[in-house]
């Protein structure tokens, strides 16, 4: 079992819900990566999704696109971010999950990237533009490594596809709560919870919900149906606007279940 | 990891590199496309509109004065510029709209560079009463203001895209984001031989009418196949449509012409085959302009329709296999090509097609007088007149 899955299951076994905040690495400068990761760790994050900026982020909404542009201007990229994280990895005790589009990995070189990720103690990998059908591009390089390749699952996909993805998933299942891009939304309908509970029934690893989850109410609502949540845009925005109190409030939500 | 089927590969190029949310829609599209291809009623309807609405067959025209001026091979022009809306883009837009209706989708999203694909899409949406939203880079909106107005006249909503370089790739990003969010009732009419499978195959099959007609027409006029065929390549839709029926004819040399912009050395160009760096953008594995960190570089060309930072996956394959020769022509040379055709034949070509004309004129010079060269004249130049005026008078 991967370290990432273990960490999430340790949380859920303690009758708590997992909470994975997303940061745009380098938004505010490369040295903020350490501050943000340690802050989130201190306030109870189960794991942290570390977003790598990209020139053409097709799966992201305006908030993360803007953060990505700021990070790019600070010189953030796959290479500089992994080097930065490696420099303070001994202070990090929760799993870090890298979220990057595929092209920077291809350019880096897949084996070289996996080596650098291991050196930075990265425990999971999310590639939003690489569906399962194309995953063999990286699976050989990941074989035998403790880096979980996380699958996103779209809840409106046919059941057979959902089952196939759930069977292949590692670490946790990233249930995409809306057909769309990242960013905040007003609310979620009841049908979504039916989908989430159905996914939960077939999953053998934890199921976390993400996309559009931005308030404490959203977190609590999602946690009725799944093992935890991923919160992206709301965290990125709050860090950018230096509203650390708001992040603390969000992070406390899962403990109240 | 379970073994999964790999779809839509041209050698190592192509594939389906998209967010999971789109995978089901791509599957659905592929099935609709495969079913339509087997259905004579689909082609009957498509051919009706291609003939009576688009104006096909368009001529394969012997460019006598251009041939004399150049002094080499006989040059023929495939007159895609004479299509309704003025370019080859309508062939694909029309067919994909019919496909969308078969899938029960009432809304269409599209990206556009020069605006030709946007206009073609807005046109067929008006024709079939489909809701139409077109994403267009901010820079292109500026360069092609007239086409924006044409799309709006046709009832489309044009959204100017500020992100990135404000050109075709950014419009593609935004169209993809829109499609991800509205996938249940919306079809994405991708305009070039790009994107995730099955798009490159769909666009090729719906554009091969160019090559099929050319083949039949040259056989009728010359009782033989041409020695060379030249087409411009941005994403590569007119070129793949023209080349496909000739790919198995080993004696027909095929040439694709990319945009060298301000020159390959300047770094400001759109010639992905000049760099040969592999990567993934907009759903496909291709040759792709990018920096050392894998960030996509902004492509540049005087012609808005060619400034895409990659080349469609099947072209990448044809490049590596050696079947097609790819080269590039810069802004100044394209302007020369434009003036050459305007003055010898009274045909003002699109800036995109002008790249092919310049290249073909030089190629024809090296060929014997009894040899035959065909140029795909992919579009007319009305949309570019202002850009050309500024470029020529600015010197």
Automatic annotation (TrEMBL), chain A:
Q: In which pathway does it act?
A: Amino-acid biosynthesis; L-tryptophan biosynthesis; L-tryptophan from chorismate: step 5/5
Q: Which GO terms describe its molecular function?
A: tryptophan synthase activity
Q: Name the enzyme group at the top EC level.
A: lyase
Reactions performed catalytically: (1S,2R)-1-C-(indol-3-yl)glycerol 3-phosphate + L-serine = D-glyceraldehyde 3-phosphate + L-tryptophan + H2O
- Alphabetical list of InterPro entries matching this protein: Aldolase_TIM, RibuloseP-bd_barrel, Trp_synthase_alpha_AS, Trp_synthase_suA
Question: Keywords of this protein's UniProt record, alphabetized?
Answer: Amino-acid biosynthesis, Aromatic amino acid biosynthesis, Lyase, Tryptophan biosynthesis
Domain of life, per UniProt, equals Bacteria
Record's function text: The alpha subunit is responsible for the aldol cleavage of indoleglycerol phosphate to indole and glyceraldehyde 3-phosphate.
This one is known as: Tryptophan synthase alpha chain
UniProtKB/TrEMBL annotation, chain B:
**What is the recorded name of this protein?**
Tryptophan synthase beta chain
| Role description | The beta subunit is responsible for the synthesis of L-tryptophan from indole and L-serine.
The record's annotation in HAMAP family points to: Trp_synth_beta
User: What is one GO cellular-component annotation here?
Assistant: cytoplasm
Whichever gene encodes this chain, its name is trpB
Q: Record's PANTHER family?
A: TRYPTOPHAN SYNTHASE, TRYPTOPHAN SYNTHASE-RELATED
Q: What broad taxonomic lineage does this protein's source fall under?
A: Bacteria, Bacillati, Bacillota, Bacilli, Bacillales
Q: Which GO terms describe its molecular function?
A: tryptophan synthase activity
InterPro entries reported for this sequence? Trp_synth_b_CS (IPR006653), Trp_synth_beta (IPR006654), Trp_synth_beta/beta-like (IPR023026), TrpB-like_PALP (IPR001926), TrpB-like_PALP_sf (IPR036052)
Residues bearing PTM N6-(pyridoxal phosphate)lysine: 89
Q: Which organism is it from?
A: Candidatus Kurthia intestinigallinarum
């Amino acid at each position: 079992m991967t370290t990432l899955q273990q960490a999430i299951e340790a949380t859920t076994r303690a009758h708590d819900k997992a909470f994975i905040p997303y940061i745009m690495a380098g938004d505010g400068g490369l040295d903020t990566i350490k501050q943000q990761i340690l802050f989130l760790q201190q306030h109870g994050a189960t794991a942290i999704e570390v977003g790598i900026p990209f020139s053409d982020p097709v799966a992201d909404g305006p908030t993360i696109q803007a953060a990505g542009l700021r990070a790019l201007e600070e010189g953030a990229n796959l290479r500089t971010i992994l080097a930065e994280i490696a420099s303070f990895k001994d202070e990090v005790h929760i799993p870090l999950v890298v979220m990057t589009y595929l092209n920077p990995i291809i350019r880096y070189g897949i084996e070289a990237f996996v080596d650098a990720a291991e050196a930075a103690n990265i425990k999971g990998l999310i590639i939003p533009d690489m569906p399962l059908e194309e995953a063999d591009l990286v699976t050989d390089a990941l074989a035998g490594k403790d880096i979980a390749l996380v699958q996103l699952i779209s809840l409106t996909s046919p059941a057979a596809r959902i089952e196939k993805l759930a069977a292949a998933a590692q670490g946790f299942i990233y249930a995409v709560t809306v057909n769309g891009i990242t960013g905040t939304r007003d609310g979620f309908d009841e049908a979504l919870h039916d989908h989430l509970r159905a996914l939960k029934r077939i999953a053998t690893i934890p199921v976390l919900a993400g996309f559009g989850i931005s308030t404490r109410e959203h977190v609590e609502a999602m946690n009725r149906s799944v093992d935890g949540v991923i919160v992206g845009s709301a965290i990125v925005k709050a860090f950018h606007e230096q509203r650390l109190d708001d992040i603390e409030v969000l992070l406390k939500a899962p403990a109240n279940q | 990891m379970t073994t999964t089927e790999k779809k839509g590969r041209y050698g190592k190029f192509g594939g389906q590199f998209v967010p999971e949310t789109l995978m089901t829609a791509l599957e659905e599209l592929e099935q609709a496309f495969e079913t339509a291809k087997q259905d004579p009623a689909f082609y009957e309807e498509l051919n009706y509109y291609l003939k009576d609405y688009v104006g096909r067959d368009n001529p394969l025209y012997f460019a006598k004065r251009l041939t004399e001026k150049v002094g080499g091979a006989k040059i023929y022009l495939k007159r895609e510029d004479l299509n309704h809306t003025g370019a080859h883009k309508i062939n694909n837009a029309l067919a994909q709209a019919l496909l969308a209706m078969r899938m029960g989708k009432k809304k269409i999203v599209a990206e556009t560079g020069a605006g030709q694909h946007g206009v073609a899409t807005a046109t067929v949406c008006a024709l079939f009463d489909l809701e139409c939203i077109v994403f267009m880079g901010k820079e292109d909106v500026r360069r092609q203001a007239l086409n924006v107005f044409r799309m709006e006249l046709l009832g489309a909503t044009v959204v100017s895209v500020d992100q990135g370089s404000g050109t075709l790739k950014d419009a593609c990003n935004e169209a993809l984001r829109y499609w991800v969010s509205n996938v249940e009732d919306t079809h994405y009419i991708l305009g070039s031989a790009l994107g995730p499978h099955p798009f490159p195959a769909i666009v090729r099959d719906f554009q091969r009418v160019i090559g099929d007609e050319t083949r039949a027409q040259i056989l009728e006029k010359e009782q033989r196949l041409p020695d060379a065929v030249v087409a411009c390549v941005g994403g590569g839709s007119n070129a793949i449509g023209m080349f496909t029926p000739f790919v198995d004819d080993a004696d027909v040399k095929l040439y694709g012409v990319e945009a060298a912009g301000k020159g390959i050395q300047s770094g400001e160009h759109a010639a992905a085959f000049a760099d040969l760096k592999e990567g993934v953008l907009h759903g496909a594995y291709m040759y792709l302009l990018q920096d050392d960190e894998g960030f996509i570089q902004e492509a540049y060309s005087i012609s808005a329709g060619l400034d895409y930072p990659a080349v469609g996956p099947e072209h990448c394959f044809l490049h590596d296999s050696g079947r097609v020769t790819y080269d590039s022509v810069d802004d100044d040379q394209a302007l020369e090509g434009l003036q050459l055709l305007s003055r010898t034949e009274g045909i003002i070509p699109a800036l995109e097609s002008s790249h092919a004309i310049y290249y073909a004129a030089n190629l024809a010079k090296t060929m014997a007088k009894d040899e035959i060269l065909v140029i795909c004249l992919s579009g007319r130049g009305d949309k570019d007149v202002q850009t050309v005026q500024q470029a020529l008078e600015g010197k």
